[in-house]
Amino acid sequence: MAGREKGPLTEPMYYVLMSFLDREMCGTQITEFVEKKTAGRVKLGPGTLYTLLAKFQDEGLIAEISVEGRKRTYQITDRGRESFREELERLRACVNDGLEALN
Amino acid sequence: MTIKKPTPCSIYDMEGLQNWLDEMALQGLFLERISFHNDRFIFRTGEPRTVRYRLDPIVPGYNYDERRELYAQAGWEFADTVTSLYCVYFCADPTVPELYTDPQSLSCAVKQLFRRLLRKDGLFFLVLAFLTVCLLFVERKEFVRNLLLGERPLQPLVCMLLVASLFLAAIWEGLYLKRLWSVCRTLEQGLPLKAGRRWNRPRYLAWFIPLYILISLFSKLAINYSAETLYTYSAALLAHPWPTAVQLEQVDPGQSLNVDGYLVKNSSRLAPVQELASLNQLDSSPCPFYTTIRYVRAVSPGAARRIYRLERDERATKLDQWQTRTYYPSRITSLEPLSPRDWPGLDRLEVAQFVSGGQEGWTFAALQGNDVLLVSCTNSAPWEDCLPLFLEALDKEVAS
Fold it and tell me: Domains of chain A, with CATH numbers?
């Protein structure tokens, strides 16, 4: 299945998509995950988070699985997983190129 | 206590609005609400302190309540809405992350807002343009008539002004949308937004209200303005020596005749019009009879042809209407509608015949070069006998 076709992911996009790899997530859990994973380096504002969630949903990278009051839970789709893998490959190639140039 | 302040910059200038609201908070003015037309911001006074105000674009499917609650959990409180564009959130805690920490995500939201506005405005202007075209199409005869004959000379001008203002409004709105698009592009490139120039005064009111009053007043005055001049029958100065009632065999020589009527002249340079209407009353007869002569001298044969069509169509409509009149003397019966006839020296001739008030009558519409002539008569000789008299009069001009 083809992944995302709209260019590379930005850092917040990358971490938000990464947060879904292990389990389904809701908004606050994503913020906590990113905060913890990046040791506070990447901060997610609420506007950014909900815009990204809506964008990923539109692009079919994640899907809403439950709504409890204001709490919406999402899970990653196969397409989202593929997109993340492609981005990871791209970043790996970038890092390898950088290391090669440095050595 | 509340203080009202006019909008200091374009509402599409996101950075400009945010900076201004931040500055107001430093002066002890905290946003309470925004007027419906987005032209005034209402603040409540308080202790000056640092408060960040941020605009959240309202994208399609924006869930107000849900966002408000979720943003509040993240430390951003809802202030008010800039109608259909943004929700304004504020935060007094400097440790709370920005509403949008990633310019790309804000760019994505602004782009969705831009598309929504483009669709909405595009549709609005399409509908408006369609309605304008329909209106102009329906009123095209009236438009051409006023343009050529100048009976209501400002009416075409008002029409053109309204159409022009529609296009100007579309350009105006387009410029604002362009500004929003440039915000979007700047964010997409990861560059910081720059605040635009601030207005010195409430620009909307300064421009919009006088312009609105001027246009509406001008439209009302202009549409009702008539360039026609009315003369009494005795003071009528005719362009040609039209045949008299005696010549038209409406009365016998020596009969006592009371004539009343009027002459209407327009001031068109393209097609001066004279309409002479006379109501004749014989002492010996209780029933009056009439003659109307409408003469147009167009500036060119082309204009004359167009005017002939307009006048002929109007006369045909009037004849139809006169059939249904309830007032007996002016009702016509036994109508033979306008039909083309051949006549030497005339480019076009159409004649209708009818009975009015028990008297036989006829109407003809004639075109000869630049001249258009429409005549209606009752109680006269047949049109075939009268037409040569009118054509003869057409060749003679009365010195003014």
Answer: 11-102 (1.10.10.10)
